[in-house]
Amino acid sequence: RHILEACSRGIYSCFSNYFVRMFSGRDTNVPSPSRVMLEEAKANFLRFSCVVLQEQWDETVGCLSNIGLHLNVKGRFNVDGRISAPLAPDNRKRNESYIEGFSSEEMDTLLRLNELDMEFYEWAKGFILRSTALRSRSVT
Least packed by Cβ within 10 Å: which of 28, 48, 53, 101? Predict the structure, then answer.
């Protein structure tokens, strides 16, 4: 748990708000990302032609055909393009048990350190799902 101690001191190596840092396009060594960086991350996100959410694969994979990647099967693919089995229920239990290993104080620290990332994810997910719904309505 020493990483939580490092994170609570604002040390970059804990990758707090990692996605806001990356999508903002700014120097990632900024001690704590700001709301300005969050807005920059959102603006940069809009430049992507397609973003697929793994946890909502079937709903979002359709955007790949818009950029010329037509999949003949629905499913999850690994890095080299081979189809793999759907996420096994065991994996979800393993992730939940990992989270359950944190104390409430540690969870509060992690949530606080990633507050902007969580806001960014919810915004991006909403954008993707709204865009997907609009595309599917225009096709039918």
Answer: 101
